């Protein structure tokens, strides 16, 4: 092996070693934040598929939504929407903030949603916040709150 190539290879391996170790070691907090984000994304994906069973699997049994109208919606009422002429066509999130506190977390994001509710077209924009708790090794949403603002 050429001396210059050998030195370059050794230099690359020395420089790359700390970088690869840093990439593979995720802090527990960052790992939990990624798990929360994955839970929320799975919830959005299930809603886009109109899959009430998958949505319900990510909500605690005692989950409640505080709607934009300030009304309380229990889990069963919310899940009843799926399959009743409801179809979400667009659901995007942005400006997401996740905070983890041991076995609980808050998830706050801006959203844009468009679809049909009981067959009637709708569009909603706003912010929602979810409170999540880690139970039996998985994150569940235990409470949600939604506020609307006009579409941009």
Short summary of the structure?
This protein has four helices and six strands; from the N terminus they run H-H-H-E-E-H-E-E-E-E. The chain has helices at 3-24, 28-48, 52-57, 75-80, and strands at residues 59-66, 72-74, 87-101, 104-117, 120-135, 138-149.
Number of domains: 1
Q: Assign the CATH class.
A: Alpha Beta
Beta-sheet strand percentage? Answer: 35-45%
Whole-Å distance between the termini?
A: 62 Å
The total beta strand count reads 6
Can you tag this structure with a few keywords?
Nuclear Transport Factor 2, Chain: A, alpha+beta, 4 helices, disordered N terminus, six-stranded mixed β-sheet, 152 residues
Structural summary, described in words:
The structure is a single chain. By secondary structure, this protein is of the alpha+beta class. 36% of the residues lie in helices and 45% in strands. It is built from four helices and six strands, in the order H-H-H-E-E-H-E-E-E-E. The protein has a six-stranded mixed β-sheet. A hairpin with a 2-residue loop joins strand 5 and strand 6. The protein is globular, with a radius of gyration of 21 Å. 14% of the residues are buried.
């Amino acid at each position: 092996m050429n001396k210059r190539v050998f030195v370059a290879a050794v230099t690359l391996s020395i420089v790359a070693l700390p970088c690869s170790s840093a990439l593979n070691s995720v802090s527990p907090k960052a790992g939990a934040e990624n798990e929360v984000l994955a839970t929320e994304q799975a919830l959005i994906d299930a809603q886009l598929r109109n899959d009430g069973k998958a949505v319900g699997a990510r909500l605690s049994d005692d989950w409640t939504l505080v709607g934009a109208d300030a009304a309380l919606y229990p889990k069963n009422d919310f899940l009843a929407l799926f399959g009743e002429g409801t179809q979400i066509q667009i659901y995007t999130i942005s400006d997401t903030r996740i905070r983890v506190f041991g076995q609980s977390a808050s998830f706050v994001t801006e959203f844009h949603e468009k679809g049909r509710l009981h067959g009637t077209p709708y569009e909603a924009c706003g912010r929602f916040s979810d409170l999540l708790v880690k139970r039996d090794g998985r994150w569940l949403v235990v409470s949600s709150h939604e506020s609307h603002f006009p579409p941009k």
